[in-house]
Amino acid sequence: MPLILNNVTPIHWAIAGAGIALVTLALLFIANRRLGISTGFEDVCSFVLPIGYFTRDAVRLARGWRMPFIVGLAVGGFLSAVLGGGWAPIWNLGIFDQVIGFGHAGKLAWMFVGGLFIGFGTRLADGCTSGHGIFGLSNFELPSLISTISFLAAGIVTTQFIYRVVFHL
Amino acid sequence: MALLYFALGTVFGFVLSRSGAADYNYIQAMFLFTSFQLYGIIGTAVLITAPGLWLIKRYGRTVSGRPVVVPLKPQHRGNIVGGILFGIGWSICGMCPGPIFVNIGEGKIYAVAALAGALAGAGLFGAIYTRIQSAFRLPRLAVGTGGAGSRS
Fold first, then answer.
1. At CA A77, angle to CA A75 and CA A82, rounded to 5?
2. What is the pTM of this model?
3. Are the beta carbons of B46 and A137 separated by less than 8 Å?
């Protein structure tokens, strides 16, 4: 199955997994940082929301590494597009377009609602696929195992409900 | 150092972009059990990170000789409830937090709406933290200079 991005053929999962592992280990070994991306939402919030939760030192002091890392993520996606056929604005959403088929406004609303779940859920769980799923599991941490099982199970149930029950794929 | 984080983020973003981890179809295919790709990626990443992490902790120092510090995440009811909420969002958007930023870089317009939602959700959590703290047994916030028991 080609990617939505420029119909590129994806790299092998073993190579991708090794790449993710190397970045994770480099972050710790070179910079003494524990990989974690969803905390970056707090970093961004801390620039505009002057409430106690976001003005803590734990948040403010981590901005110095997480913000450039997050900007790098976007640049990595940009380079991937440029080197893989060219960058252009994309509205294509794969099977969502074939099966659910909302227009632009509906798609934005759908994504905003999903984003609310991601933002609130990852903060409540204290991590996401990177901090819990990759780093926490690799470090044999029980809260990470509990969280990872929870979000994988919820993702499976939700997608099965959307694509097998409500809309028939 | 900022340049190092930027470079590592760029490599990470490129890998997520080209592997399917930032692709709506591949995320749904993982949850529909029609593709092994994402399970292979996460599984391989953990299989390689785990022994690497063990070695770094055993060595005990970073490249520049500083003691390695691995901050641990607290265990509470939010691990399950927050995990479930995040899983629902992961399915709806076809993105987890890293890929939201990757998708924006790729030019996917709708990812900007996902980021706006995620920031609003995180903002809401921060705003009501003290009110849901006891229900989820969340740690006490260390406002200001941090210290013991701080939530990091």
1. 90
2. 0.95
3. yes
